[in-house]
Known about the structure:
CATH architecture: 3-Layer(aba) Sandwich
Radius of gyration: 21 Å
CATH superfamily: Alpha/Beta hydrolase fold, catalytic domain
Strand order of the largest sheet: 1-2-3-5-4-6-7-10-11
Number of domains: 1
CATH topology: Rossmann fold
Strand content: 15-25%
Order of helices and strands: HEEEEHEHHEHEHEEHHEHEH
CATH class: Alpha Beta
Shape: globular
Amino acid sequence: MVKIKWMLLMVAIGLMIQWMQSCTKDPIENPDTDSDIELNESADTILLNVQYGSHAQQVYDIFLPRQRNQNTPILIMIHGGAWKAGRKEDLNQYRDIIRANWGNIAIVNMNYRLASNSDHIHHNEIMQDIDRVIQHVLSHQKTYNISSKMGIMGGSAGGQLSMIYAYKYNKNIKCVGNFFGPSIISDWEWYNSTNIWLGGKVGNILAEYVGQTWDKEVYDAVSPYWNVNSSTQPTISFQGVLDPIVPPNQNKLLHEKLDIQGVENEYYEYFAFHGFDANQSRDALLKMIGFFQKHIK
């Protein structure tokens, strides 16, 4: 009798594994989205390194949930790395937590051309890449079977890029998630400091991103703080109080200004450095999911 029960249990486990595998397709690498590809809407689908430009860094991954439809919203994810380093895979852990806790969301995890003085890639070029990703995704909206409703989030430099892109360049973005990203690029004390964690003068890093050395007006123009107004999108931010790279007061000031402008926002601090541990990351992401679900409508 015990043997029969054991055999039935093993059969049930086998069927469960088979069912789970049938609900998730193997990732499709380097898909030609300009051809007539057919995507199975009854299974989770992952497309890796979708090209949106000719540069090697102009690629994105997209996760499409099973049972998606024309109401499935989009989340754009932007990695950090002081604007000149990092890659989309750095956010895979965040992506997986979001996937596990938000069933009906299409996640776009993008690379962008990294800031480089020698290659003449700066703020404007990175903004162009974010815009190109969004336009590429929307041009394939029918193929992906998703909506055009969209939120954007990023970590560190990716948080700043997410905010400034939404605030200044694309009011169709519904809401913004900022994970310890700088909001005041025109912070002279920060610009004029040396940071051992960044390996040198902060001003040199900011100048490579902006495309020129210090100019208060130019640096204000790429600062999320100085682009906040009453029409700014709802924003949620997360900041480590011991952050040795991004001055924690920047995001406090940002959210004070959002309050003054009557913009819905949430701000959370963690006892952390520039980055969160697993429990803090999960807590922050669950808060962000709730915030985004409220505003992506």
